[in-house]
Specification:
Elements (H helix, E strand, L loop, with lengths): L1 H10 L11 E5 L2 E4 L4 E4 L2 H4 L8 H11 L12 H13 L4 E7 L2 H16 L3 E5 L8 H6 L3 H4 L9 E4 L4 H7 L4 E7 L1 E2 L5 E2 L2 H14 L2 E5 L23 E4 L10 E6 L18 H16 L2 H17 L6 E7 L2 E6 L4 H9 L2 E2 L1 E2 L4 E4 L7 H21 L1
Parallel strand pairs: 3-15, 5-6, 5-7, 7-10, 10-11
Antiparallel strand pairs: 1-2, 2-3, 4-12, 8-9, 11-12, 13-14, 14-17, 16-17
Helix pairs in contact: 3-10, 4-10, 8-9, 11-13, 12-13
Bound molecules: pyridoxal-5'-phosphate (PLP).
C-alpha cells in the first residue's frame, strides 16, 4: 500500500487532501484496501455509487457495450442514447421534454447556466449561500465557499447569493434581469441542509413572476439518494432545468441536463460535448435505471433513511448539534470538528465524508445491507462519544 500512497503523493496534482488509504476493490457497499482490509463505504464515490460498487448488471452492460460501440458523437444517433434520453425524460419531474448529456456535474451546471442565459437573454443568476455547484468557472461562480472562489477571481459576473432557506430574501433578489435561480434541494457540500418547501416554492414562484428559469442541481441528490428519484419530487417542484451526474451511470463518468418543455428545442451549435452521451456511459446509465426500478431502491432509500435519521437524532451527546437529512443523504452536525471523528471511523472500518468543518456526511449506497448500516450508525455514535471525551 505504501508505494501506492507514495506514488500518488509524488505524481498526483496535489489538489486533493489525501487520506492514508489506497482502495483497490469494491463490492456493493464495501471497499477493500491494498492489504485486503474491509471498509463499509458511506463515501460511495462522494455519492456516485448509489447502486454500490461493481453492480453485476452495470458491469455486464459496460462489458457488452464496450465490445460493440463505445463512442458515437452527438452528430449521429445511437440506439443506447436514444433509449436513455427517452427514459430520463420519463423519470424526471413533470414537464421535462428533452435532455443534454455530458460527463460531470460541473459540466451539467455550466450547461444549464448557459441555456438559461440563452433562453432568457438575461445575465443574472441567483444562487444560495453555502451552495456548491462545481469548480469550472461558471459553476464556481454559483458556488458560495470563499476558499474555492477566491484564488480564481474575477469570476463570471452576474451571480448573487441569498441566505439559504430565506424565502423573502430570495423573492427580493429575483428581477427582470434574472435568467435563473439555481438551487440544491439538499445542500451537500454545504453541510447536508435540506431546503424548506417554503423556500423552494418561493423560488419557483419568483421565477414564474419574472420570467426567469428554475434550475435544480440534483447532481448529488438525484437517482434515488433522497428516497425519490429526484429530490425536487418531495416538494412537487417543476424546474425548467435539472442538473444530474454522480450516480447517473452507476459510477462511470456521466452528467446531464433535463430540459423543461418551456425551453423548446435548443438552437444548433450553441453547446456540445465530444464524449457526452457516449454509448458506453448510456448503457451503464440504462442498467442503473433498470436496477433502481426493479429492486425498488428508491423506496428502500426512503425507508432506511427514515430509520437512520431517527438513530442519528437519538445520539445523546452534548457535542451533537443536529441530525439532518433526506432519505440516505444524511448529516450529523457537531459542536466539535468533524475531521477527527471521520478519522476514528476510518480506523474502525467505516468511511464517511465531511461537509464543512463540523458536519459528518453519510452517503450509504442504496443497496447497503441493513446490518452494515446499523454498524455504521453504531460506529458514528461510538466515534462521537470517544472524540467528545478526548476533546
Ligand atoms: N453540484 C453538486 C450539488 C455537487 O454536489 C457537485 C459535486 O460534489 C457538483 C455539482 C459538481 O460535480 P462534479 O464533481 O461531477 O463536477
Amino acid at each position: 500500500m505504501t508505494s501506492i500512497l507514495e506514488l500518488e503523493a509524488r505524481f498526483d496534482s496535489g489538489v486533493y487532501p489525501k487520506r492514508d488509504l489506497a482502495l483497490v476493490r469494491g463490492e456493493g457497499a464495501l471497499v477493500f484496501d491494498a492489504e485486503g482490509r474491509r471498509y463499509i463505504d458511506c463515501v460511495a464515490g462522494i455519492g456516485s455509487v448509489n447502486l454500490g460498487h461493481a453492480h453485476p448488471r452495470v458491469v455486464a452492460a459496460i462489458r457488452e457495450q464496450a465490445g460493440r460501440l463505445m463512442v458515437c458523437p452527438g452528430i449521429f444517433s445511437n440506439d443506447r442514447r436514444a433509449e436513455l434520453l427517452q427514459r430520463l425524460v420519463a423519470a424526471g419531474p413533470k414537464g421535462m421534454a428533452r435532455a443534454f448529456l455530458c460527463n460531470s456535474g460541473a459540466e451539467a451546471v455550466e450547461g444549464a447556466i448557459k441555456l438559461a442565459r440563452l433562453h432568457t437573454g438575461r445575465p443574472e443568476i441567483v444562487a444560495a449561500m453555502r451552495g456548491f455547484h462545481g469548480r469550472t468557472l461558471g459553476a464556481l461562480s454559483a458556488t458560495w465557499e470563499k476558499d474555492y472562489r477566491a484564488p480564481f477571481e474575477p469570476l463570471v459576473p452576474g451571480f448573487t447569493h441569498v441566505p439559504f432557506n430565506d424565502a423573502p430574501a430570495l423573492t427580493a433578489a429575483v428581477s427582470q434581469r434574472t435568467a435563473a435561480v439555481l438551487l440544491e434541494v439538499v445542500q451537500g457540500e454545504g453541510g447536508v441542509r435540506p431546503a424548506t418547501r417554503e423556500f423552494l416554492h418561493a423560488a419557483q414562484e419568483a421565477c414564474r413572476t419574472h420570467g426567469a428559469l428554475l434550475i435544480m442541481d440534483e447532481v448529488q441528490s438525484g437517482f434515488g439518494r433522497t428516497g425519490r428519484m429526484f429530490a425536487c419530487e418531495h416538494h412537487d417542484l417543476r424546474p425548467d432545468l435539472l442538473c444530474m451526474a454522480k450516480s447517473m451511470a452507476g459510477g462511470l463518468p456521466m452528467g446531464g441536463i433535463l430540459i423543461g418543455e418551456r425551453l423548446g428545442e435548443i438552437p444548433r451549435k450553441v453547446h456540445g460535448s465530444t464524449l457526452g452521451g457516449s454509448p458506453l456511459a448510456c448503457a451503464a446509465a440504462l442498467a442503473t435505471l433498470d436496477v433502481l426500478e426493479e429492486q425498488e431502491l428508491v423506496g428502500r432509500a426512503a425507508r432506511l433513511g427514515r430509520r437512520a435519521l431517527e438513530r442519528l437524532a437519538a445520539i445523546e451527546a452534548p457535542v451533537v448539534r443536529e441530525a439532518r437529512g433526506l432519505g440516505l443523504f444524511l448529516g450529523l452536525d457537531l459542536r466539535i470538528k468533524s475531521a477527527p471523528v471521520v478519522r476514528r471511523l476510518q480506523e474502525d472500518g467505516i468511511l464517511v465524508l465531511q461537509a464543512g468543518p463540523t458536519v459528518i456526511r453519510i452517503l450509504p449506497p442504496l443497496v447497503i445491507e441493513e446490518e452494515d448500516l446499523e454498524a455504521v450508525l453504531d460506529g458514528v455514535a461510538r466515534a462521537v462519544a470517544a472524540e467528545a471525551s478526548a476533546s
